[in-house]
Amino acid sequence: MRVLSALVLAAACGGAPPAPPVMPPARVVSLAPSITEIVYALGAADRLVGVCAQCNYPEAAAQLPRVGGYLVPNVEAVVAARPDLVLVVPSPGNRDAVHAVERTGIRVVVVQDRTLEDLWTSMRTVAAALDLAERGEGLVTDVQRRLEAVRGRVAGLPPRRVLLVVGHTPLVVAGRGSLQDELVSAAGGVNIAADVGGVWPQISLELVVARAPEVIVDAAMGSEAGRRDLFAGLATVPAVRDGRIVAFAGDAVFRAGPRVPEAARALAAAIHPEAFAAG
Questions:
Q1: N or C: which end of the chain has fewer CB within 10 A?
Q2: Protein fold of 28-110
Q3: What CA–CA distance (Å, rounded) separates 272 from 159?
Q4: Hey, CA dihedral for 265, 260, 68, 127, is it positive or negative?
Q5: What is the DSSP string of the chain?
Q6: Can the peptide bond before residue 21 be classed as cis, meaning omega within 30 degrees of 0?
Q7: Mean pLDDT over the full length of the chain
Q8: So what's the architecture of 158-276 in CATH?
């Protein structure tokens, strides 16, 4: 009755009726694991009505309805979820699907997830889209504080040359312009592939020998035997010679989300175990 009375009064006075209030989105679809983690960290998980197949953290996210994959979302499944808002990160294969969702009139918000700066922006953007801007600022502050704590843990230690492997066949590593490159730096390392070219350069074993990493962090999904075989003949490489090839399990290092401090800490422990000897 109050809204109707306001409209009648405005009409009687000859003015335009006030715009109806914009309600915060109640039904949200996330098409990227990093976004899903941000929504949970903002305390808005109850609004999620669909996520992509790769959304597996926190554990509760695995129970949410699936709307296709991160690379290729299912347009029909997204629309069937009746979202007020779809949150997406650009991927090589999702452009057409995202445009198809937009053409239905559903609001789509796109955020980037390549670097730490992207992370700060995406947390703020997602929070604003959910009408939770204040919580977004708090989340950014908390994640930055925890990341700085990792930097402080290794501050003053001599940087170590690091190779961060993401694929075995071919040998693909983290390059410059990637979140992983920034996390290696935060963890007290120097990425030996930072100047090779590209975010995910493919390199040769000859380059590994020439760059002589002191630590090889292997985040690829290969076996322990495959890891040993790949680098077995590189006896002159310090990381191989000294047994500093470290298996790195988990997906936090690949997600620009609230868990980047945990990923940085795990990297720091692999690069500078002496800084974590006391726990």
A1: C
A2: Rossmann fold (3.40.50)
A3: 9
A4: positive
A5: -HHHHHHHHHHHTTSPPPPPPPPPPSSEEE-SHHHHHHHHHTT-GGGEEEE-TT---SGGGGGSPB-B-SSSB-HHHHHHT--SEEEE---TT-HHHHHHHHHTT-EEEE---SSHHHHHHHHHHHHHHTT-HHHHHHHHHHHHHHHHHHHHHHTTSPPEEEEEEEETTTTEE--TTSHHHHHHHHTTEEETTTTTSSSS-B--HHHHHHH--SEEEE-SS--HHHHHHHHTT-TTSHHHHTT-EEE--SSGGG--STTHHHHHHHHHHHH-GGGGTT-
A6: no
A7: 91
A8: 3-Layer(aba) Sandwich (3.40)
What pLDDT does residue 221 have?
A: 73
Residue 12 has pLDDT above 50, yes or no: no
User: pTM (2 decimals)?
Assistant: 0.89
Both structure tokens of 259: 């868990």
19 pLDDT more than 60: no
User: What pLDDT sits at residue 223?
Assistant: 60
What's the average model confidence in pLDDT over 34-58? 97
Which of 7-16, 89-98, 140-149, 171-180 is predicted least confidently? 7-16
pLDDT value, residue 59? 95
